[in-house]
Design goal:
heterodimer, A: alpha/beta, five-stranded mixed beta sheet, about 20% strand, globular, B: alpha+beta, Chloramphenicol Acetyltransferase, 3 domains, seven-stranded mixed beta sheet, four-stranded antiparallel beta sheet, 8 helices, 19 strands
Chain lengths: ~325, ~375
């Protein structure tokens, strides 16, 4: 069935709300406005204001409320409009949700799901264009997911709700309009990375909004005789090292593609693991394509220049060959 | 810092092509000194400098065309201290090779320094190592060429041998019934695939005997004998398409018979597959050739220079054999020695063959 990422996400929300009375959705503009990215459009009419709750503009307050509800036995889905604003709720996520199981000696679990849009590419300037998945992916106690396909948009939410611990889901804003085939039945886990395009010459390792660009780069490379394998990390914490190392051991070259800033990026973490675990498999230095280390520019041509692009990925991959 | 800019050498000149620098970095220049030759499209002009100093950096390269006013060189004032050079990472002395290539090179015993890299910046890759490992000599020519190449190589080596090496030849008939009986007994206990053949036994006997005749094991180089560092026996292996190679089995005297048999089988297989190692090609200290399987009674071989000896074995065949005053039928092999008379004499060669004969009468010691 053809569907969009947005529709797949909405179908997942509807299924969760319909199948479990403990599930409710809250966040800024999720109800009457239908969600900033129109993901929750129609859900207020269908499920009522008790379960589709508009909140005041205080991320700290409503993420905290979500954590409280989870502790009280509910299965809240908290939508933070974008990762940019999630910084106001960082204390609740990092200091509270991630730590309660540990600090209560296992007595409390926090089964909250926090969804947020991430990424740049739509000319909304520096304060609205961050990619900070790597920050969250460095925190023990939470799981971090990055659905990049309609199948994962459809399937990851119910797996996240079933998880007894906090799960943060990053939805790249550029993906909502992407159309794709939703297989019937779909199968989704929240453990493993996946090979999105098999190849044998170079591993292109990415996730989220960079996946379509990477797949495009792989096609461009194929025309030049370089058979690239594309790995979608999908789960940013805990990382699936086995899939990555298997691909690297096969291709012996790897490019990491990640929209976060290069310094301390998720790409940097994956590179470190490859060096730790697969050093002797490598036939070339590792390469990465990340965002330039600048506040995201507003001007279109400058924003494009600052972000990972297929041409940059192609150039980085070709640099690993003579 | 003084900037030397391309001067206008005429009203109609807006650019010039540098033909030559007359100075180099570090040179002191005086006011009025010609430091460059510039082509102005009309003529080559000697360009002077009007400020004394020491040349720091030549920016424009000969052949470059630059506009008037462009800084072509930098000089420092006489007495001005040279700026500290920017710290640079010392260039690696190691040949660039990927981690995967290093690991494989170690496994295949390939010398990375001798492999041409095809990776980024000439880095040696895994594929380069594997290619090099299957190519003992230089580049692998196509099969037909390879045959011709091999013929040429054999021709050169054998001509050199016969030109340079004063060969002497000795032969000795050696009764083999004890060795054969011993081998048959020992093989009963071994699985079929691990049976030891006479060839391996002969190699071991030669190696142990050589310990007492070091002058036969080594090289003649630069007018003198150099003993071999170990007893590395080159085993003559005929190739299916013609020609032969004689790669080494290392330290034959120190190996057990089973181990030696495995090494021999492996060597023959790899020699025919064309995947010998460079050390196997360069290390033999003596050659053993066995033409018994071809049915010949004895072989007097040509020494492979710079080695100084070659031991040959014919076929093991039943013959009338007199021993202890009685005549009997016994399996006998003819062993021969081709010796380099520069390195050893027939007397020692004869002692060697006699010792080899005795060694083969005590097969349990092998």
């Amino acid at each position: 069935m053809k569907t969009t990422y947005r529709e797949a996400m909405r179908a997942a929300l509807r299924e969760a709300l319909a199948s479990d009375p403990r599930v409710f959705l809250m966040g800024e503009d999720v109800g009457r406005y239908g969600g900033t990215y129109a993901v929750s459009k129609g859900l207020l009419e269908e499920f009522g204001p008790e379960r589709i709750r508009d909140t005041p503009l205080s991320e700290l307050a409503f993420v905290g409320a979500g954590i409280g509800a989870a502790l009280g036995g509910m299965r809240p889905i908290v939508e933070v409009m974008t990762v940019n604003f999630s910084l106001l709720a960082l204390d609740q996520i990092v200091n509270t949700a991630a730590l309660y199981r540990h600090m209560s000696g296992g007595q409390f679990s926090v089964p909250v799901v926090i969804r947020m849009a991430t990424g740049a590419g739509r000319q909304i300037a520096a304060q609205h264009s961050h990619s900070l998945e790597n920050w969250y992916a460095s925190v023990p106690g939470i799981k971090v997911l990055a659905p990049a396909t309609v199948e994962d948009a459809r399937g990851m939410l119910s797996a996240a709700l079933a998880d007894p611990d906090p799960v943060v889901i990053f939805e790249h804003a550029q993906l909502y309009n992407v159309e794709g085939e939703l297989p019937e039945p779909w199968t989704t886990d929240i453990r493993s990375a996946m090979v999105r395009r098999p190849g044998r010459s170079v591993s292109l390792i990415t996730y989220g909004g960079s996946l379509p660009k990477t797949l495009q780069a792989a096609e461009m490379l194929a025309k030049e005789g370089i058979d690239a394998e594309v790995i979608d990390l999908r789960v940013l914490r805990p990382l699936d090292d086995a899939t990555v190392m298997t691909s690297v051991a096969k291709c012996r070259r790897a490019v990491l593609i990640d929209e976060t800033w290069k310094t301390g990026s998720l790409a940097a973490e994956v590179m470190a693991r490859i060096v730790e675990q697969a050093f002797y498999e490598l036939d070339a230095p590792l390469a990465r394509v990340c965002s330039e280390e600048v506040p995201m520019p507003y001007a279109r041509h400058m924003e494009e220049a600052a972000l990972p692009q297929p041409q940059k990925i192609v150039a980085a991959a070709k640099g690993l060959f003579a | 810092m003084i900037e030397f800019k391309l001067p206008s050498l005429g009203a109609d000149m807006d650019q010039g092509k540098l033909l030559e620098w007359k100075v180099k970095p570090g040179d002191a220049v005086e006011r009025g000194q010609v430091i460059a030759v510039v082509d102005t499209s009309k003529a080559a002009v000697d360009v002077e400098i009007w400020h004394p100093g020491i040349v720091e950096e030549l920016i424009t390269k000969p052949g470059d065309t630059v506009p008037v006013g462009m800084v072509m060189a930098k000089l420092r004032e006489t007495g001005e201290v040279a700026p500290a050079p920017a710290p640079t990472i010392p260039p690696s002395l190691r040949k660039p090779a990927s981690p995967a290539a290093r690991k494989r090179a170690h496994e295949l015993d390939v010398d990375i320094d001798k492999v041409a890299g095809t990776g980024p910046h000439g880095t040696v890759t895994l594929a380069d190592i594997e290619k090099a490992a299957t190519r003992p000599a230089t580049a692998a020519p196509p099969a037909a060429d390879r045959q011709a190449e091999m013929r040429k190589a054999i021709a050169a080596a054998m001509s050199r041998s016969k030109r340079e090496i004063p060969h002497y030849y000795l032969s000795e008939a050696i009764p083999m019934h004890r060795a054969l009986a011993h081998l048959a007994r020992a093989n009963e206990a071994r699985p079929v695939t691990e049976r030891v053949l006479m060839g391996a036994l002969q190699l071991k006997a030669v190696a142990l005997t050589l310990r007492r005749f070091p002058e036969l094991n080594g090289f003649w180089r630069d007018g003198a004998f150099q003993p071999g560092a170990g007893i590395h026996i080159g085993v003559a292996i005929s190739m299916r398409q013609g020609g032969l190679v004689a790669p080494a089995i290392h330290d034959v005297d120190e190996r057990g018979l089973e181990d030696l048999m495995r090494a021999l089988a492996d060597l023959v297989k790899r020699a025919r597959a064309g995947s010998l190692r460079s050390s196997e090609m360069s290390d033999p200290t003596i050659t053993v050739t066995n033409l018994g399987e071809q049915g010949v009674e004895s072989v007097f071989g040509v020494i492979y220079p710079p080695q100084v000896a070659l031991v040959g074995f014919g076929r093991v065949a039943e013959r009338a054999w007199a021993e202890d005053g009685a005549l009997r039928a016994a399996p006998v092999v003819t062993a021969t020695l081709s010796g380099d008379h520069r390195a050893s004499d027939g007397h020692r060669g004869a002692r060697f063959l006699a010792a080899l004969r005795e060694q083969l009468q005590r097969p349990e010691a092998l």
